[in-house]
Amino acid sequence: MSFFQELKRRNVVKTGILYAVSGWLILQVADLLFDLMGLPTTWLRLVLVLLILGFPLVLIFAWAYEITPEGLRRERDVDRSQTRTAATGRKIDTLIAVLLVVAITAVVADRLIPETGVVSAPPGENADGSRGTDAAMGPELRSTGSASTPGAAPPPSRSIAVLPFANMSNDAENEYFADGLSEEILNFLADVPDLRVTARTSSFQFKDRNLDVRDVAEALNVAHVLEGSVRRAGNRVRVTAQLIRAGDGYHLWSETYDRTLEDVFDVQTGIAESVTEALGIVMDERQRQRMRDVGVRDVEAFIFYQRGTRMFFDAHSSGIDMDMLRESAELYTDAIEREPRFAAAYHMRSDYPAHVMTMIGPSPEEREQAAERHAADLAQAVRYARNPQARALMEVDRALTSSSWREVPRRLENALAETTCDEGTWIEVAPVFGLAQALLDRSRTMTECDPLNFYHYYMEATTLLWLDQPKDAYGAVERGLQVAPNHPFLEMLAVKALIQQGRLDEALATAETSRSWVRDNAVATALAARGEVAAARSMLGDIVARAGPWQEMYLKLVFAAILGDRATANEAAAWYDGLPGGPLMLTGALIECLCGAPFDLSETPEFARLLAEAGADWPPPLLIDYPAMRDTADGS
User: Fold this and answer.
1) pTM for the whole structure
2) Chain-centre distance of CA 339, in angstroms?
3) E-assigned strands of 196-268?
């Protein structure tokens, strides 16, 4: 009898198979239980080591001993002619078959049963670096299942929304990891030519919301949805992703990746490439390599970035919380230290010194230091920008905060010509430089890319007011309020649109029904438009007192102008003129006021010089004719 036949006769082979299948099932159960208990992956490794060490011992035991109905006996003492003893082998066969069925069922379930529901940034969070101070996000979908315009054109066939991957780990901190991984996949896909990808602000509104994929796709006006889940335990991570065709809910592609954290970057690029292939988009090797070159490879870096971004928007939720904003800047610094080419982190970090430059309180030395940090961050953001489109938009910010505005019109034209979904910060001042129509076109493009972001409706409405189209502006505000009900910026614009139409009673009534912090500002503006200067002025003290050190001087300038206090308006404008970044704030005041020249240009020589360099017209158009300004403004 051969050695192998002897192994079979003694049930050694069957015992080995039984042990291997049982060991695999033990590992799956241990993986689940250890994850739920929050135990590190070292425990799972220990179980694996013990199982491996036990394998040869079990084989030796099976060679030397036999389990019989009479109990455990040495193999040489077993009478194999007895039927009851021979039945032991058949029982092992049955047990192996049962365990194999269980194992196959577990594998199939793991591959086919989705681990996620449809997944929004928490209310109040504008989650992608867009300018969304005081955002009231997280709208409920209407009865139609859509927040999009009724009768809108069907989505492009090559369009997709990347929903935030669900965190399946026990540790809440892994939420940032899951969000970071989702955002990186979104960024990869956003760089693919001929593919329209919904911006993060809108797609992340469906975080932790169990909604039908087809309703989500209708709200975002996309043809496809990518969703998934992330389970992290120590250094191991399991990522499940599925691409769904919204029209019929069909899964075009799905995959599960079991990797170490060091391999997460490959998972991100792998998912992005698989999605493009499933959508019939062919990328050449140059495009694939560029995708790999710009991605964030360090897991901790995008966790720091996600934490900083959450804190960033909390800091902007009502006014500006500078302490919280400083903490967010520190988290961005942590991200940059781990990933020195992290353009978005540089760009977001630049916001803190930008506020220091133009708020009440800092010394001249602190302002200059802040200006240097701001310029350095923007320079690095431009240097490491993910794509030319993002670079063009950030170049606008650099130009507007520099000591020369010669390049501002050209930079704005380049940025506004983009048809991608990359979002800029200060392109909203484009009307001052004669580019209102281009900004209007750009804002409408962004609404298609990012339909649940209030800011694009705000920008569209503001631009329409500048173009003296208040009825259309009011319509844009109404669409925005469907997305972000009671949003203070939109409520303020609704009042201005009514004033510009001469509907002063309606403007005051609308202002008085506001439920946001902007109510007093809106009421005072409506009273000033009606010529009730004393009533409006009586509210000004409280408005300025609540503004905080960043907005106090800005509001003082605008309200002093519309209430006919030219001296105070000039004083505030001159104060800004002497600050790094101050001329940009004066440009914003022109957009805010819509009242022609809210101050005398002779009081702001630096601003006058910069406007002349840019070839901008002065005075700006008079779009709201406040009675108190008529006898005080000379526009010089």
Assistant:
1) 0.76
2) 19
3) 196-197, 224-233, 236-245, 250-260
